């Protein structure tokens, strides 16, 4: 039985609706810990959950994004403004031995090494998780000088070779994944 173009369009719409509804918005997502704030980021099917810790001027984060087990994700704060270069990033991926890896890496050029390195602020309690085609980075970042006006960048790439994240796409959502965020609750 041949499908008509209308039938094909309806099937495509159903598949799209199922895919969109399978991604949970941040307000409906539950972790084993409580996050007081969250935002559904506008591109890359990503979400940021956080708690601001006033006593240390630090941010406890859970950054999660749709990803395959072959890809990588990254979340970064850029103290110098809304751009990739200058970002202080945390990257996560599944290593060649099958374990999840998460580490800090400074982004110093348009073609960063993506090797582990020190950031301009402290990173603690760093870990990663992978389940249901979603990768999550957990960390505490800071102290931050100004948690009310923070330039942040989030990213995803399709491949990891020899345990090094490979370059992400340089068009579309991958170059739109930056903004300003206020971590301090109102």
UniProtKB/TrEMBL annotation:
This is DOMON domain-containing protein. Residues 44-157 form the DOMON domain. PANTHER family: CYTOCHROME B561 AND DOMON DOMAIN-CONTAINING PROTEIN, OS08G0335600 PROTEIN. It comes from the Eukaryota. CDD domains: DOMON_CIL1_like. It is found in: Membrane. Residues 1-23 form the signal peptide. Keywords: Electron transport, Membrane, Signal, Transport. One of its GO terms (cellular component) is membrane. PROSITE patterns: DOMON. InterPro entries: AIR12_DOMON, DOMON_domain.
